[in-house]
Amino acid sequence: MALILIVAFILAAVLGGVAISYVAGAAAVLAFIATGYSNYLAILPQRIFSQIDVFTFLSMPLFILAGEMMTRGGVTKVLIDLAMLGVGRLKGGLGYVNILASVFLAGISGSAVADAAATTKTLVPAMRDKGYSNDFAAALTAASCVIGPIIPPSIVMIFYGALMNVSVAALFAGGIIPGLLMALFLCAYNFWIARRDGHPGGRDMVLPAFWATIVRAAPALLIPVTIVAGIVFGVVTPTEAAALAVAITLLLIFVYRLLGRDRPGRAFRETVNISSDALSSSAMLTGSIFMILFAAAIFGYLIGIMRLPEGIAAAVQDLGLGGTQYFLVASLVMFAAGMVMDVTMALVLLVPVLIPAAIASGCNPVHVGVVSCLNLTLGLISPPFGGILMVVSAAADVNYLRLSRAILPFLAVQVALLLLLILVPDLTLALPRLVGLID
């Protein structure tokens, strides 16, 4: 009954327009009162600061800042041009460009919603002008943005790693193959649709200038290479990689202004202005995320007091479910929750309760972590409250209900991949094992 009241409160508050950070904090305190543990509230400040005093959390605001600077500074446009150069003349070429651009952006921003905002304004109008339906273009853009939090860096994985005490580097390495597989699945679906519906493509497609695009894109690719290779091979920590990403992005913005024939003084001023705007936006988003982290610490404390993970683990043993069988059930619960809840709130409420039993049943913590992050991220494109759907609907001027219908085939493809990843753990664990991050 207490859980039902808390979930009802969260849904009512979110639907009423209350910021998710305030909802998270209020729901956490309400949970103590509703479950009869209000006498423990006095020591919450100490518990909060002890549980969020995690070095890995420092990388989150830096990755957010790098993503904001990239979007405002023109790096996004450069990477989209590079994708266009590679696959733009294939049949359904702009669909492939859409997916490939998300792969490139995934190695920089780590945020699906940020990628959606960055690509929708550029790619959806371009696809519409070439004859694609507005609904298909918007749905493909929304679906491909889910790649962002799976290929490192991933803000969701950083959050998960700190919450469950799992190596963020191992999670990042584990996300590379699933992220590329998602791109491959979406490309396969685009291939089929392009031939069924006669999407445009061929030699008549106008491509950006070859050498100019290569010259501008090559430095931009340093960002994902620095982040992914540096973290996976142990050269830098996630926090150091995030700082390097910010520094490289800042330099790129200045260089792109010079390549655009701006004088050094003007290029410097524009770089400062872009960085200032990005810093302001990042500070607001970071503050909201840390409010949710406070709530996560409160929920984690309550879950520990109530010994919920131990109770679920005992129930799993009594039912005789194996690790994979239980993880399938837990994944179904998380997917259903992701359809109506914010990703971070779902992480806070469900992961500490459901995941320890899966690990105790024999599932690998890295495999469980990567698949759970993908599972909850799919909620961003799942009706009725998908965050990416809302962003794309507004930015592309597509009716939300029509977009919700158009996204369903893409969502089915991605759910099929999710099931494959659950049933074949080696797809997730191969790379972390290869580089020595797990046994």
Notable characteristics:
439 residues, 77% helix, 22 helices, mainly alpha, globular
Mean pLDDT, all residues = 79
Which regions have little confidence, pLDDT < 50, spanning 5+ residues?
A: none
Q: Strand percentage, roughly?
A: under 5%
SS content category: mainly alpha
Number of helices: 22
Helix amount, in percent? over 70%
What shape does the CA trace take?
Answer: globular
Main beta-sheet strand count, sense and barrel state: none
Radius of gyration: 22 Å
Tell me the domain tally.
1
Number of strands: 0
Terminal-residue CA separation: 42 Å
State the order of secondary-structure elements, H for helix, E for strand. Answer: HHHHHHHHHHHHHHHHHHHHHH
Textual characterization of the structure:
The structure is a single chain. This protein is mostly helical and 439 residues long. It has one domain. Helices cover 77% and strands 0% of the residues. The chain has 22 helices and no strands. The two termini are 42 Å apart.
Topology of helices and strands:
Layout: H1 2-15, H2 20-34, H3 44-52, H4 59-73, H5 75-87, H6 93-106, H7 112-129, H8 134-144, H9 155-164, H10 168-197, H11 210-220, H12 222-232, H13 238-259, H14 264-306, H15 308-319, H16 323-338, H17 343-360, H18 365-377, H19 387-396, H20 400-406, H21 408-423, H22 426-434
Helix pairs in contact: 1-2, 2-14, 3-14, 4-13, 4-14, 5-6, 5-11, 6-7, 6-8, 6-10, 7-8, 7-19, 8-19, 8-20, 9-17, 9-18, 10-18, 10-21, 10-22, 12-13, 13-14, 14-17, 15-17, 16-17, 16-18, 17-18, 18-21
